[in-house]
Amino acid sequence: MKIAVLPGDGIGPEVTREAVKVLEALDLPGLILFDGDVGGIAYKRHGMPLPQETLTIAKSCDAVLFGAVGDPDCDALDRHLRPEQAILGLRKELGLFANLRPAKVFEGLEHLSPLRPEIAKSLDIMIVRELTGDVYFGDKGQRGEGDARTGWDMMSYSAEEVRRIAHVAFRTSRARNNKLRVTSVDKANVLETSQVWRDAVRAAAEPHPDIELSHMYVDNAAMQIISNPDQFGVILTGNLFGDILSDLASAAVGSIGLLPSASVGERQTEYGTFGMYEPIHGSAPDIAGQDKANPMATVLSVAMMLRHSFGREAEAVRIEKAVEKALADGIRGGDLGGSHGCEEIGTAVRERL
Ligand code: IPM
Ligand code: MG
C-alpha cells in the first residue's frame, strides 16, 4: 500500500505528521510512505509549486495524503508559480474529477455552528463537486488596457463530464444509505452550461429510480443550506459552485479544523480507487510551527483514504470513532475554543484507536 505524503506549507507538515502517526498505529501490513514537496516549499526548493518529481511520486502510489499549500512569501509571484497551482495541477494530472466534502456537525459541538442548534443538528451533507472542468480549466485570458482591459474565463461542461460526476453522486448517495436523495445544483435559468448539466444529470439518474433527484439553482441552494439543511443528502454540483457551496457548508458546521475531503477519479489500483485526501482548511501561516493546529481534519482524511482507496471500511470507522471519542472526552484544538496542541490531539486520537 503505497502512499505519497505531501505536507506542503504552513501547518501542513504538523497536521500531516499526526495523521501519519495515526495511520501507522493501525499497523497495516505493507504500508510504504513516500514524501514529496508541494506548494510554496516546493517553489523555494525546486523553483515550481508542483515539481515533476512530486508528480511522479504521486502517480506511482495508490493514494496521496495532502496537507495544505499557501505561503504569504509567494503572494506576489506569477499565477503559474503560486502554491495553489500545485493543487489544481495535481487534480488535473491525476484525473481527480470528483471531490467529496462531507459537512456534518459532530455531536456535542452544535454550539460552534453559527446556526441555531436545532438546525445545526440536522446538517449532514455530502457535497460532490466536479473538480477538473468548468470555468476553472476553460480558455482564459486578458486583453486591452485601461478601461478596455478585459478578462475572460470560459465556462463549459460536456455531457460526458457531467455523466461521470453524476454517477459518483448517485453511488455516494447509495453508500451513505441514510437519505437516498441527490440535489443537483446549477444555474440553468441563465447558463447554457447548466442546461447541458441538468439534462445529463437526468439521464445519469435513470438507473437509480429509487434515489430522489431534484434540481436547485445555486443562489437558492446557498440559502437553503443554512436555513433548511435537513432537506439535503448529497449535493451534486460543478467546480465553481462547489467551491463556494462547500465553504458555505463548512462554515455552517462551525469547525473547519474537523472537515476532511477526498478527490477521486476513475483509476483503480489493486486496493481500490486512487485518490488524494486533504483537510479542507488552508495552511494557516499565522499559527504554523507553533503546535496550535488541529490535526483532526487530516486524521479524518486518512479515514476517507482507507475507505475509498484501500477498501478498509473497518479501519476507517475505527479512526472516525477515535476522533469522536476524543471530542466527546473534551479534547479540543484552538479552533474549537480549546487549548490542546497538535501533537497532544494526535496522541489522544491514537490512544482511543
Ligand atoms: C479548494 C480551494 C481551491 C479551489 C483553490 C486553492 C485553488 O479553494 O480546494 O476549494 O478553488 O478549488
Ligand atoms: Mg475552496
What's the quick description here?
By secondary structure, this protein is an alpha/beta fold. The chain has 12 helices and 12 strands.
Please, could you describe this protein's structure?
This protein is α/β, with parallel strands linked by helices and 353 residues long. It has 2 domains: 1-100 and 265-353, 3-Layer(aba) Sandwich (Isopropylmalate Dehydrogenase), CATH 3.40.718.10; 110-254, 3-Layer(aba) Sandwich (Isopropylmalate Dehydrogenase). The chain is built from 12 helices and 12 strands. Helix 8 (218-227) runs parallel beside helix 9 (239-253). The radius of gyration is 20 Å and the shape is globular. The structure holds 3-isopropylmalic acid (IPM) and magnesium ion. Magnesium ion binds next to helix 9.
Total number of helical segments? Answer: 12
Strand ordering within the main sheet: 2-1-3-12-11-4-5-10-8-9
Order of helices and strands: EHEHHEHEHEEEHEHEHEHEEHHH
CATH superfamily of the largest domain: Isopropylmalate Dehydrogenase
Question: What is the makeup of the main sheet?
Answer: 10 strands, mixed
The termini sit apart by: 20 Å
What is the CATH T-level topology of the largest domain? Isopropylmalate Dehydrogenase
| Radius of gyration computed on alpha carbons | 20 Å
State mean pLDDT (0 to 100 scale). Answer: 96
Question: What is the global morphology?
Answer: globular
**Overall number of strands:** 12
